[in-house]
Design brief:
Layout lengths: L2 E10 L2 E11 L4 E5 L6 H8 L7 E6 L2 E2 L9 E4 L11 H11 L4 H14 L15 H13 L5 E5 L7 H14 L4 E5 L3 H7 L2 E6 L2 E6 L1 H8 L3 E8 L3 H8 L5 E8 L4 E6 L4 H10 L3 E8 L3 H9 L2
Parallel strand pairs: 3-8, 3-9, 6-7, 7-8
Antiparallel strand pairs: 1-2, 1-4, 4-5, 9-10, 11-13, 11-14, 12-13
Helix pairs in contact: 2-3
């Protein structure tokens, strides 16, 4: 199911939590929703789920407003703080959630078994939720969000409290279910976004400041290309000076004299020209690495203001 957010706004007292934002998410797309604390991510997700009302604008699912249509049955929601009934055993809680979400009685047991397997809860399924580690509680939260097989998943910090192995497992789970569902997830783990999401949306102070794939954001963030080289066969100063004369090179700097490393900054990709120059000069090249702009750097540049 497609989601369309149109000129959405929400104010808490004097603070604009969400300030006239618009974006869309299509079926089969996993959108990574990034932003610093207080940027408006959670508020936006709560409005999409119709958990809270907006001040202005609209959220539409398949062309109908969430405020007038009954879309809660189509949405699975994992809130930021994952509220759970800690006195309930895992199996009883999932049964309660399934019945609450209107899962047919004939399918409840089947869906519970599927979620137990899918979320890796088999070893903990008979324990009370209060006896579980934070990571397993998070898995229970994911299971309740998916118990009714919703077409839309809204996941607010889904890997909070998970260890590195669990993060990889949940990441693969989200990627797998995201092929047929519409998924919006927020996280502060930027490598996770690159590994999981098809598209990245960054929000800061209630406004969208970036929207695109990781590669697109890198290209927009940096107009220069940086290439790191390890070369021998001549004095490093002479190598640097000659490479600095190549058309398009903006700077050539020695990084490490002992290991013969040089960094070239150019206004476009000239790796082929650099390589030909090295070959013609009879130098020996043992390393040529294009340096990508890190997503962390892009995030900081867009949100530190």
């Amino acid at each position: 199911m497609n989601i369309e957010v149109k000129n959405l706004a929400k104010t808490y007292g004097p603070q604009k939590a969400v300030d006239d934002i618009s974006f869309s998410v299509k079926t089969g797309e996993i959108l990574g929703f990034l932003g610093p604390n207080g940027a408006g991510k959670t508020t936006t997700m709560k409005i999409i789920t119709n958990f809270i009302d907006k001040d202005n604008g609209d959220v539409q699912i398949q062309g109908d407003s969430v405020s007038t249509g009954n879309f809660k049955k189509n949405i699975g929601y994992l809130p930021e703080h994952n509220p759970l009934y800690e006195d309930m055993p895992v199996m009883d809680y999932l049964q309660y959630c399934a019945e609450l979400q209107g899962v047919a009685k004939s399918k409840v047991d089947q869906r519970i078994r599927e979620m137990i397997k899918l979320c890796g809860l088999n070893a903990e399924k008979h324990k009370k939720i209060g006896e579980l580690s934070k990571g397993y509680r998070q898995r229970v939260g994911l299971a309740q969000a998916m118990i009714h097989d919703p077409e839309i998943l809204i996941l607010d910090e889904p890997t909070t409290g998970l260890d590195p192995n669990q993060i990889v497992e949940i990441r693969e789970l989200i990627k797998r279910i995201g092929r047929s569902k519409t998924v919006i997830l927020s996280t502060h783990i930027l490598p996770e976004v690159e590994a999981t999401c098809d598209r990245i949306l960054i929000i800061n102070k209630g406004k969208i400041v970036a929207d695109g794939t990781a590669d697109t954001l890198r290209k927009q963030a940096s107009s220069n290309v940086i290439t790191r080289l390890q070369i021998s066969g001549a004095a490093l100063n002479d190598i640097r000076n000659k490479l600095g004369l190549i058309p398009g090179v903006k700077s050539a700097q020695i990084m490490d004299l002992d290991s013969n490393r040089i960094e070239i900054e150019s206004d476009h990709n000239i790796a082929e020209v650099i390589f030909r120059t090295i070959v013609k000069s009879n130098w020996v090249i043992t390393e040529m690495i294009p340096v990508e702009t890190k997503l962390e750097d892009i995030f900081r540049d867009l949100t530190l203001n």
